[in-house]
Specification:
single chain, about 80 residues, mainly beta, Immunoglobulin-like, 8 strands, about 75% strand
Length: about 80
C-alpha cells in the first residue's frame, strides 16, 4: 500500500489522501500534535487499486501535525501538515 499524497498541506476542515493499494487491506492514520500526542485516529478499509479518501480534520485545533499512515501494523509514510 502506498500513500501518494495529502491534498493541501495547509488544511482547514476537509482534506484528501490518495492511496494506491496492490491488495485490499486496512489503513490506519494516526494524527499526532507537536508534542507527540495522538489527536485523531482514522481507520479505513482500502480496496485494491487507486482511491481517494476524504478526511474530516474539522475537529482538530489550529496548529502543526504529523499524520502517520500504517497498513495494518506496518508503517507506510509520515506526512506533516498545518491545520488552520
Amino acid at each position: 500500500m502506498y500513500i501518494q499524497n495529502l491534498q493541501l498541506g495547509l488544511v482547514e476542515n476537509m482534506s484528501y489522501v490518495t492511496v494506491l493499494a496492490n491488495k485490499a487491506g486496512r489503513l490506519v492514520l494516526k494524527v499526532l500534535d507537536v508534542e507527540g500526542h495522538i489527536a485523531k485516529t482514522v481507520i479505513a478499509t482500502i480496496n485494491e487499486g487507486k482511491q481517494q479518501l476524504e478526511l474530516n480534520m474539522g475537529d482538530l485545533n489550529s496548529g502543526r501535525y504529523v499524520m502517520n499512515a500504517f497498513s495494518g501494523d506496518i508503517f507506510i509514510k509520515s506526512i506533516r501538515f498545518i491545520k488552520q
